[in-house]
Amino acid sequence: MRRSVIALLAVLALAGPARAVLPGEQLADPRLEARARAIGAHLRCLVCQNQSIDDSDAALAGDLRVILRERLLAGDTDRQAVDFIVKRYGHYVLLKPPFEPETLLLWLGPALVLVGGGVWVALMAKARSGPIAPTPALTPEEREQLAQRLDAESAS
Amino acid sequence: MTAEIGQFALILALVLSAVQALAPLAGAWRSDPMLMAVGRSAALLQLLFVGVAFVSLAACYVQNDFSVALVAQHSNLSQPLIYRIGATWGSHEGSMLLWVLILAIYGAAVAIFGGSLRDTLQARVLAVQGMVGAAFLGFLLFTSNPFTRLFPSPPDGAELNPVLQDPGLVFHPPVLYMGYVGLSMAFSFGVAALIEGRVDVGWARWVRPWVLTAWLFLTVGITMGSLWAYYTLGWGGWWFWDPVENASLMPWLLATALLHSSLVLERRGALVSWTILLAILAFSLSLVGTFLVRSGVLTSVHAFALDARRGVYILGIIAVMTGTSLALFAWRAPSLKTGSLFAPLSREYAITVNNLFLLAATATVFLGTFYPVFMDVLHGDKISVGPPYYRMTFVPIFMLLFLLVSFGPMLNWKRDEMSRLLARVRWPAALAGGVLIASAIVFGVGHIVSILALALGAWLIAGAALVLARRWRLGELSLADSMDLARATPLAVIGLVVAHAGLGITTIGIASVSAWQTNKVLSMSPGQSVKLGGNTITMMAVQPIVGPNYEANQARFEVAGPFGVRTLVSERRLFPASQTTTTDAGINWGFFGNIYISVADPNPDGGLTVRMWNHPFVDWIWAGGLLMAFGGAVSLADRSLRVAKVERRVVKPRASGPRGVGPPIAEPPIPEPGVASAEAAAS
Predict the structure, then answer these.
(1) CA nearest B364 in A: which residue?
(2) Which of A153, B98, B361, B533 is most buried when burial is the number of CB atoms within 10 A of its CB?
(3) Is residue B184 part of a domain?
(4) Which of B241, B243, B601 sits opposite A19 (nearest CB)?
């Protein structure tokens, strides 16, 4: 813990004013960098609006990018690296909220509306469908009226 | 002096809106034509006075009257005229004034064009519009007065947020507000119908053009907003699931649902109470969109009103309006006549299912936007809901919806047969299947969601084309006969085809850019080249330049690609008045995709940090959005024609009884007794 705090301080001192993914931050190993980008897209810049750390210009986002890459260089799996960051910044840092009892409604709400609404629509359809009387044929008078109207329509 | 004129005009408008809220309501109740007429005059006068107030504020900005606090905060001597005018609605107070102005315009439209409505219905609609107007004029005057004076007045003002200093500011907010506020018409008609206790085909025929108008403006507004964000925010995103974007998406989704359900109501007299409920919900969400987001409950880049008192007032208005109208709905809706019957496989039913999916999509966006607030309040736990959430919830719902879209226009009203339906869609289905297989072979199955979306895009476009092919009976009749049918195609049908095809084009754009965009970030010096997406990009020169109210570091690039060589200019601007930097990206717009270059600050090594993207087919997203809106406009043109026709013919038959717009002549008298009886049952 103490070492990581020192590391963090060192990073902060070195990082200075940072901008969204900077040339200097990128890892030499393209595979590691690709992993860092994939993870970074799911981490929130804590001082921004729904912006991932990869998109953000804020200094804090730059720090997180650097920490993330350090963890990956140290041999962490993706999961370990994310856990490391969540431990320090809380769930708020995850753009994809965790699936927990508190977030059940968030995750299942859309499906609930769809299924619940589907049942309702199906019931309504049943009530609505009833026996639809076959369309009765036109009476001779109606046929006459129709012809007149159509004539009037095409004449106008 | 100008500010005081505006202030007095606003106070008069508030008083007038109170009159408009009460007099016609009492008039309709007591069948007093004089009192009902008061509503019409009040609506027109309200427009006059709100208009005076708006022009006064704009004049204060144009004259740079820094003794008005709002002007001092959002304008200065070096700010270009166009952005001084734009600044009129570039602040919380000013945008509120614009909102109230547009509400007054719609209210006046009911007074002017609503002559063919039943008198009591028109009076009640005006009364509801008056209530909404009174609530928000009160909010404006008591918590967000745009005309507050500053003493002593400063010699120069601060500055309009530089990010907003863009042509987008001049068009985007007014267009979007035309949409948001346009939904107030659906709301007022819905509530008026509930008070009146009857909904007929005339009601639907009158409401639909307004819903279409609101939807059209919302579509254009959202599309423009997305495009603006793309070129101005400097990292090439076009949608961020930001609370404010979500707030515009929710009313759009419900307006789309309303557009379709009111079609069923108009044509078949069904889905009566559902349509009214949608109208109430759509406007409520539009209020949430315009105000709650700005109240500071949700913080966002757009939130320029971080004031708790305003938040409470707004929350109060929304709670009272939504609560009252929903209570009225619960009380009156059961007594409304339900319309005609339809079979489980029919166009009515398909539209009901369309509404269900749009409702579920709205619920998803609502949950994603507000769940963090609930979590914070209930558990004190902060969570974020970002793009990954929407990819897992919203996107699947929409993909299922898109799968259904092309079936809709192929279905007959009232009832249909599955085997015939499937036979009708065989060509679009085959094309979509072909696209699916071909893109899976070319791109592999790594981006399965995007590949499916490409196929859905093809399905939507082909499905739209099939509507015309079927109507013109291509291949069935001789070419000359098909041409005759083509000439007789109603504009509404063409509108439908264009809008659905636009949806497909947007889908293809989203699928392509999501899966196949590439980017590079590097430090570049003049003379250096880099390859990206089949282009060679060379940095030519970097030089400092001076704009009207900013200084910039300007970089020029040469992009050599398969279609020749283009020069791109990308700037990093510093606005000294507010010490803000903005990005002006260099974009090579193209049919097949864009090259997008933004520059940041110089690096210690002397180079410039450059971020470049290749965005395949990204322009299709906005082109599709504009096509959708164009489809709406085409359809609207048809409707106004038809309504005019009805009004001309209405003269004599009107004596036969009050029937709203008039006898059901607007539809060509197709020999289907079902339609006539449905209309008779509904009225």
Answers:
(1) A110
(2) B361
(3) no
(4) B601
